[in-house]
């Protein structure tokens, strides 16, 4: 049987899923990072051990039927390697804002409102490495997923255009723009990765890795993607107008569209997905605020006492600290959590209703800026299991709200490996 392996490196752990060509799951494995993956100097070896461990947990009889493998990583987690692929310094994680130190240089290089104009973008991190590290030997600049795939195929300096978006790669012309090449030119310029479409077959598995784990010699390693796009792919959404809302610690929306929308004023950007665009934005509101006030058991219990058809008049902007970017762009936006009723059910109703309003406003903004009209919303993340919340959200979104069969990013990446081999 032909099987396909997807490997997901998320924020707190790594997972793998093996599927067949019908999309049926044959095996899932999991690895949790100690210390939330934050111990920086040792991170590459933590990731490498996680990769080998995930593969080792897959039964040998499944491993030897794997035809293709793809890996996703957290967006804008980047690293600098020598010409042998060995990291020369600690990786810089997705949420590391040290790039704020190079804001002026970044603004001078990049066009107005460009996606890279953020302290956490891959380009900001590259500029930081140039300005704050003395490097004379040649280096390669890689994303987390690029490096992990390199461990499997041994070809250094390959990326995909989902990971490379926040580096400034132009997905319209499929090349690095001149403003980027000229802006980073200098003595300490690392080699930028060659960028291919996500899922593109790159190279057969290295003989050493194939022999160690019992992969067949022609098992292909395909280009990967980012963890949040992988989660979108898992949902199976493929029609313009359909969307996925992720109700995890934060609220993230992604709408499939014929048209591209990019506006760094609201943190809105578009990923290329075949001939379509995945237009998205992320708010700081979401499940972390719910978890601040309620346990998961309370969330379940109190939710069942809420009538989703009844409107709560409590108008909050639930945040744990000031500031949001999407759909309201204001770094000083204060959390609004008053008035707080003594009845916990009423308070929760107000919170769920208010987050639903922010979600609906987010989709409205994407459409106002040119994305396709919303037709259906799938929900992923911890909030997806709350059917009362889905009812409230449906009232605001005015389209069907459904839970997809598959939500794991590793499943989406396995689909990518499968399509890479069959398209
Ligand atoms: P992440 O991966 O972003 O940390 P998850 O997708 O694991 O988050 O979702 C966790 C979030 O789900 C928590 O912040 C929690 O508040 C929320 N959550 C858990 N159970 C419920 C529920 N029944 N209703 C609404 N939200 C819930």
Automatic annotation (TrEMBL):
InterPro entries: ATPase_NBD, Carb_kinase_FGGY, FGGY_C, FGGY_N. It comes from Microcoleus asticus IPMA8. This is Glycerol kinase. Belongs to the FGGY kinase family. Coiled coil: none annotated. Keywords: Kinase, Transferase. It is an enzyme of class 2 (transferase). SUPFAM superfamilies: Actin-like ATPase domain. Pfam families: FGGY_C, FGGY_N. Its EC number is 2.7.1.30. Residues 270-420 form the Carbohydrate kinase FGGY C-terminal domain. Residues 3-233 form the Carbohydrate kinase FGGY N-terminal domain. It comes from the Bacteria. CDD domains: ASKHA_NBD_FGGY_SePSK_AtXK1-like. GO terms for molecular function: glycerol kinase activity.
